[in-house]
Specification:
The complex is a heterodimer of chains A (about 425) and B (about 450). In chain A, about 75% of the residues lie in helices and about 0% in strands. Chain A is mainly alpha-helical. In chain A, helix 7 (about 120-135) packs antiparallel against helix 16 and helix 9 packs across helix 10 (about 195-220). Chain B is globular, with a radius of gyration of 21 Å. Chain B is mainly alpha-helical and about 450 residues long. The chains are: A mainly alpha (about 425), B mainly alpha (about 450).
Chain lengths: ~425, ~450
């Protein structure tokens, strides 16, 4: 049986099964579906069963690149400014501060550890460390959505988590885009190499031109098939152009998505189309990310464990610190950062993008770290969020009870 | 004006991005794919503004941006995007099968059979006679002994009679035409694909008897293999179609993804068991449509049209990019008579067949215009000839590609004219142009 056929069978049956089995599991046991496809990819990959050979994995590179772009566009589509300006400023401050703290803490620590462990200079270690920092910043929204739906809550705590996940994603994607620009291999244009600023401008410009083309293309049309073709063409063009130029398709497509959502009259239709295709591409990405994984030598274990530990510390401790500084402890409590521990497709997408980049140092170590983090946290992300939300919500409800009810706990709002 | 700006932006963007490339072929194919979706679609709109089928715009975009002209879409890129063409053919075949209903086949079966027999037979004989008459000017017949002359003339004629299900389906989807001209043309085109394969196999066997090939290790095409290739395709397609109908009955979710997987899976299975891919998927679509519940087939068809929309645009653009424009220019004194005689043979055959089947005159006089387009199936057959007869096969392929280029442009225009004259455009086109404009 050809590898391609087997892959189709496996991917199809796994994806369809997700709707029956994992949908039920998710609702009943608060389990997020995703990591199992990663394991499936690893099992099918060249280093375990060899069902998927390296040639087959390489032949699907355009689809995985498209998946990266589509995920970037999906993040961009969540940046609808009229909705974002309604969110209180302190929510954004907390989110941004937590993201920055996580990025700096993980990046700084990993740079030192990698330089020491692999006997490379700090400059050489900076690139994989920065990639890991971006990956560490990203959090999964699936757990937040699942837990919030289960608890039937959309209060300030859920808003904080939701905004934090979005800001985490933006910081992660933008930082990786910057990395790709700074560490781009030299390309001579007009007898000189392009600078990092120029590469970054090109990345952003691709997204902008993609957005302009979309609007020109759609014109006054409202018909859904036409909009879908325009959207698909735009995402494919933007991600293909960015990947071809050795830049980040995630960032270019994020800009594209952000422009679309803020300028198009067909926002709802676009969001539906994006979401509809995102899920199957996400599963394809997980399977091929797993298949593309390569085990390194044993030297990766310590830095990966350290990565997981530092990330957890940064997320929980960093969130606590910024909450205390902003006087929001009574509202959000000290442990809301736990709800950001879950990692999903975006972390893997950034890691895979790093693997595809020319000249990246220690690509498979970075990839291994992201896979380990996703495997450990994705399944439990909804339960982690619930463990944070449930006490906060219970406390809020207790305070809102009538005066002859139980007294409010100390420190309550 | 808007479309000109789009094309200008796309061209200028590609001009700026291409020098920045890192050499990754996978990223290059993705970039080319995205470019073609937007550029070819825009060209289709330009064609539509001139009351021509959008397919012509897609084909012209391929010619313009392809290796023959601007070379934005390089030969390497067209090879990298070959899976897109395979997927498109598979989707088209499935959709074509899903268009056919058993009741309709019973109603039109006799007319389709008689028209097909008549036009294929007359066209085949006319083309063979033309090539024999012009043998001193035909590259692969010059100075050839009589058996060689006859054998290769028949071979060329057997592939030149082929029609194009892809163009037929694309135009019917674009226009939403469902009248007697549309349905009869579709029926003739779909059945002709099967018949042409059988005809080609028989003619190739005859040619091998008349002109034994020099290559010693070319396997003979046996009757058994042809029977399996066609009969097995029906069996495999039936099983696949039944499985799809069951899915629609009991699951009916994620139809867009399912549509792509079904066609991908069906073509892969057909390739593995050595059956005819087009016929397999055609049968699968036919079985699915005729055994599934009311509405289920429509839901899957719509999902397929939607997921296939960008794929179809790129498929026709790639076909345009692969067109042998320079060959047409180089050998046009030979191409034009072949194109005209083929058209005349089809016209005569359809009129005779239509009268024989007692088809209404309006339908019988217009069907021929839908049969001018030619398809990639014949390219595959021409490639087989080139493999069996490397020396003479290459010029046969070249001449065929040149005539195909002309017919691929003229065919959709004529078919659209036929639908317009038959009164099968108008309200349907207005209502469905935007709905299915992507194909």
């Amino acid at each position: 049986m050809s590898s391609t056929l087997l892959l189709v069978l496996v991917a199809a049956s796994a994806y369809l099964a997700a709707h029956v089995v994992f949908g039920w599991l998710g609702r009943k046991y608060l389990v997020v579906s995703g990591a199992e496809y990663l394991v499936l990819g690893i099992v099918l990959g060249p280093h375990v069963t060899r069902v998927l050979t390296p040639e087959v994995v390489d032949s699907f590179a355009p689809i995985t690149t498209l998946a990266l772009g589509w995920m970037g566009a999906a993040v961009g589509m969540r940046m609808y400014l009229p909705d974002l300006v309604k969110v209180p400023g302190v929510t954004f401050r907390l989110a941004l501060a937590e993201s920055a703290l996580t990025f700096l803490l993980v990046g700084g620590t990993e740079m030192i550890v990698l330089a020491w462990l692999y006997e490379i200079s700090l400059f050489q270690a900076a690139l994989p460390a920065a990639a890991l920092a971006g990956i560490a910043t990203a959090s999964s929204s699936a757990g937040v959505e699942l837990a919030a739906t289960r608890l039937n809550e959309r209060g300030v705590e859920v808003t904080q988590l939701g905004v934090s996940v979005l800001v985490n994603a933006i910081v992660a994607v933008v930082s990786f885009g910057l990395l790709a620009s700074i560490w781009h291999r030299p390309v001579m244009v007009n007898d000189r190499p392009l600078t990092a600023t120029e590469w970054m401008t090109i990345t952003l410009g691709m997204g902008v031109i993609g957005g302009v083309l979309f609007h020109l293309f759609v014109g006054d049309e409202r018909e859904s098939d036409r909009i879908f073709v325009s959207l698909a063409g735009g995402v494919i063009l933007v991600s293909g152009a960015a990947a071809f130029a050795g830049l980040s398709p995630l960032l270019a497509a994020l800009v594209f998505g952000a422009i679309l959502v803020n300028t198009s009259r067909n926002r709802a239709e676009l969001a539906t189309s994006i979401a509809h295709v995102e899920r199957p591409l996400y599963f394809v990405l997980l399977v091929f990310a797993g298949a593309a994984w390569q085990p390194g030598n044993s030297a990766w274990i310590l830095p990966v464990v350290l990565f997981l530990a530092i990330r957890a510390l940064a997320k929980v401790g960093g969130a606590r610190l910024v909450t205390r500084i902003n006087g929001m402890l009574p509202v959000l409590g000290p442990d809301w950062g736990r709800g950001l521990l879950g990692q999903g497709g975006l972390a893997l997408a950034i890691a895979l993008n790093y693997v595809y980049q020319d000249g990246g140092t220690l690509p498979y170590f970075v990839f291994t770290a992201s896979i380990a983090s996703v495997l450990l946290t994705d399944l439990m992300s909804a339960r982690l969020v619930q463990s944070v939300l449930a006490p906060l919500i219970e406390r809020r409800h207790a305070l809102l009870r009538p005066a002859d009810g139980p007294p409010a706990p100390d420190g309550g709002p | 004006m808007r479309r000109i700006i789009i094309l200008a932006l796309l061209l200028e963007g590609m001009r700026l991005v291409l020098p920045l490339g890192t050499g990754s072929s996978s990223a290059h194919s993705l970039l080319t794919f995205g470019f073609l979706i937007l550029a070819a679609y825009t060209s289709g709109e330009v064609a539509d503004s001139f009351r021509m089928p959008r397919i012509v715009g897609y084909l012209v975009a391929g010619v313009l941006f392809g290796p023959s002209a601007l070379n934005i879409v390089t030969v390497e890129a067209t090879n990298e995007l070959a899976p897109v063409s395979s997927l498109a053919i598979a989707l088209i075949a499935f959709l074509a099968g899903a268009e056919l209903r058993w009741s309709e086949l019973r109603e039109r079966g006799r007319a389709i059979t008689l028209i097909l027999t008549s036009e294929l037979g007359i066209t085949f004989v006319a083309l063979s006679a033309l090539l024999i008459g012009l043998r001193n000017y035909v590259p692969f017949l010059q100075s050839a002994p009589t058996p060689t002359m006859i054998g290769f003339s028949l071979l060329f004629a057997s592939i030149a009679v082929v029609h194009s299900p892809a163009v037929t389906m694309a135009l019917l989807t674009e226009t939403g035409a469902r009248g007697p001209v549309a349905r009869t043309t579709l029926g003739v085109v779909l059945v002709s694909d099967v018949v042409v394969i059988m005809l080609f196999s028989a003619v190739l066997a005859l040619a091998r008897a008349l002109v034994p090939p020099n290559t010693g290790d070319v396997a003979a095409i046996s009757l058994g293999s042809v029977v399996w290739e066609l009969g097995g395709a029906v069996v495999v397609g039936t099983v696949l179609g039944a499985a799809v109908a069951l899915y629609l009955r009991f699951v009916k979710r994620e139809l867009m993804l399912f549509a792509v997987l079904v066609t991908f899976f069906g073509s892969e299975i057909a390739r593995l068991v050595h059956v005819e891919t087009l016929l397999t998927l055609l049968t699968a679509g036919f079985v699915m449509e005729n055994i599934s519940r009311d509405g289920d087939g429509d839901a899957l068809r719509h999902a397929m049209e939607r997921s296939g929309a960008p794929v179809f645009v790129v498929f026709f653009a790639l076909a345009g990019a692969a067109m042998a424009v320079t060959e047409v220019v180089a050998i046009w004194p030979l191409v034009i008579p072949i194109v005209l005689v083929r058209a005349a043979g089809i016209w005569t055959g359809c009129r005779i067949g239509g009268r024989w089947a007692r088809v209404p005159a309006k339908t019988g006089n217009l069907v021929w215009m839908g049969l001018i387009s030619q398809a990639g199936v014949a390219i595959g057959l021409a490639t087989v000839i080139a493999e069996v007869y490397p020396t003479r096969g290459a010029p046969i392929r070249t001449l065929f590609l040149a005539t195909l280029a002309v017919n691929q442009i003229a065919g959709p225009i004529l078919f659209r004219m036929a639908l317009a004259r038959g009164g099968e455009l108008g309200e349907e086109e207005t209502a469905t142009t935007t709905a299915v404009a992507s194909t």
